[in-house]
Amino acid sequence: MAPRKPEDCDDMEEVRAEIDRIDVELVDLIGERFTYVDRAWQLKQSPAEARVPWRIQQVINRVRARAVEKGLPPELAEALWRQMIGWFVQYEEEKLSRQGEDNA
C-alpha cells in the first residue's frame, strides 16, 4: 500500500498506521548507520578516538540544517542526534577498551 499524506488520513487508525510505517523505516536506517559505526571503531586505535568533538559538531550542524530545510524544529533533530551520537560514542569506547584489554 502506498504511503498516505497526513491530510489524506481520515482517522487515527490511518495516522497510526503511517507513523508505524515510518518507525520501521527509521529503525532500518538507524540499523544501517550502526553498521558504519561498528566499522568505525574497528578502524580506530584507542577509546580516545571515539569522541571527536569537531566531527560531532559537524554532524549536528548538518542535521540542524537539514531539519530547517524540511520544516522540522532543528532543536528536535539536534536532541535526537545528540542522544544517538552519545550512545554510539559510548559503544565505540567500550569496544575499543575491550580490544585494548584483549591485546594487553
Sum this structure up briefly:
By secondary structure, the chain is mainly alpha-helical. The protein has three helices and no strands.
Spell out the key features of this protein.
104 residues
Q: Low-confidence runs (pLDDT<50, min 5 residues)?
A: none
Task: Please bin the fraction of helical residues.
Answer: over 70%
Strand % is under 5%
Assign an overall shape: elongated
The assigned structural class equals mainly alpha
Instruction: Give the mean pLDDT.
Output: 95
What kind of sheet is the major sheet?
A: none
Task: Walk me through the structure.
- This protein has 104 residues and is an all-alpha fold.
- Helices cover 76% and strands 0% of the residues.
- It is built from three helices and no strands.
- The longest helix is centred in the first third of the chain and has 32 residues, at 12-43.
- The radius of gyration is 18 Å and the shape is elongated.
Draw up the topology in text.
Elements: H1 12-43, H2 53-69, H3 74-103
Helix pairs in contact: 1-3, 2-3
